[in-house]
Design a protein that fits this description.
With about 220 residues, the chain is of the alpha+beta class. The protein contains two helices and 16 strands. The strands form three sheets. Strands 1, 2, 3, 6, 7, 9, 12 and 14 form an eight-stranded mixed β-sheet that branches. A six-stranded antiparallel β-sheet has the order 4-5-8-13-10-11, with no helix packed on it. A two-stranded antiparallel ribbon has the order 15-16. A hairpin with a 4-residue loop joins β6 and β7. The protein is globular and about 50 Å long.
C-alpha cells in the first residue's frame, strides 16, 4: 500500500509539472544564443517568435561561425531523453540529478530549489567518440526560467578546451536554442557537459546535437 501511495504521489507530481509547463508555454518567449565553445564568447538575442532557419544561419555567420554544407554520411549526432545512446557513430548522454525523466515526451526536467548551492550538481554529460574532423556546430535545445528577481545560467564546457560558455536564463519562461561553434577535434573524441547554476528555477531539456556543417530544419546553410 505504501508503494502504491508513493507511485500515486510521483504520478501526481509529474502531471502537476506537465500542467505547469503547458501554462508557462502559453506566454513564453524565445531566445537564440550563438557562441564559440573554444573561446567562451556568446551573443544572446531575445525573440518574440521561434528562431527561423535563415535568421539562425545569419546570426551564426555574424558571430564568425563558418557555415559549410553538411556532407551526407559524415558524423552526425542527436541525443535526447528518448534516445540517449547512439551506436554508430557512437555517442551517449547521461543526465545527473534530474527531477523528472519523461522519455515518451522526449524531456528531462530539473526543478531547482531557490537555495540550491551547486550541491548536488545538476546537468548532463555527452560523449562523442567519433566527432567531426571539420568545424562543427553543437546545438542544445531547452526551455527554462529563473527564480523571480534572479538571473540563472546554463554553463557548457568542452573538456578538450576546458573553456566555459555561460548562457543567461531570465525570470520569464523561454525556449532557448544554443548554437556553439566547435573547432576541428582531429582524431580525438569530444566530451561536453552542461551544468545548471543556482538561480535557475525550472529547466526542460529537449535535445543535444552535433554535426559538421549545418542543416537548419531541412534548409541547408550554404557557405
Amino acid at each position: 500500500m505504501a508503494g502504491a501511495t508513493a507511485d500515486g504521489g510521483a504520478r501526481a507530481r509529474i502531471e502537476g509539472t506537465r500542467r505547469r509547463l503547458h501554462q508557462l508555454a502559453e506566454r513564453q518567449r524565445w531566445v537564440h544564443h550563438v557562441g564559440d565553445i573554444a573561446s567562451g564568447e556568446v551573443v544572446t538575442t531575445e525573440l518574440d517568435r521561434p528562431v527561423t532557419p535563415l535568421l539562425r544561419a545569419r546570426r551564426l555567420e555574424r558571430a564568425g561561425v563558418r557555415l559549410t554544407p553538411h556532407r551526407p554520411g559524415g558524423p552526425s549526432f542527436r541525443l535526447t531523453s528518448r534516445r540517449p545512446y547512439q551506436a554508430s557513430p557512437e555517442a551517449y548522454l547521461v543526465a545527473f540529478n534530474a527531477s523528472i525523466f519523461l522519455p515518451f515526451d522526449d524531456t528531462i526536467i530539473w526543478e531547482v530549489p531557490a537555495d540550491h548551492d551547486f550541491s548536488p550538481l545538476l546537468g548532463l554529460d555527452a560523449h562523442f567518440t567519433d566527432s567531426p574532423s571539420d568545424p562543427a556546430v553543437l546545438t542544445v535545445t531547452l526551455a527554462a526560467k529563473a527564480w523571480p528577481g534572479r538571473t540563472g545560467f546554463v554553463e557548457l564546457v568542452a573538456y578538450r578546451d576546458a573553456v566555459t560558455v555561460r548562457v543567461p536564463i531570465g525570470a520569464q519562461y523561454a525556449a532557448h536554442t544554443i548554437d556553439l561553434a566547435v573547432p576541428p577535434p582531429g582524431p580525438r573524441s569530444l566530451e561536453t557537459a552542461m551544468t545548471i547554476s543556482p538561480g535557475v528555477e525550472l529547466l526542460r531539456f529537449s535535445a543535444l546535437s552535433l554535426r559538421a556543417g549545418i542543416v537548419l530544419d531541412g534548409v541547408l546553410a550554404e557557405p
